[in-house]
Amino acid sequence: MLLAVGVYALIEGVSRLFGPAEAPGPGLLVFGVVGLVGNVVALLVLAGGRSKSFNLRAAFLEVVNDALGSVAVIAAAVVIATTGWQRADAVAGLVIAVLILPRAARLLADSASVLLESTPPGMDLDEVRARLLEVEHVEEVHDLHASLVATGLPTISAHVVVRDVCFRDGQAPPVLDALQKCVATQFDVRVEHSTFQLEPAEHARHEAPTHA
Question: Beta strands 193-199 and 153-162: pairing type?
Answer without folding.
Answer: parallel
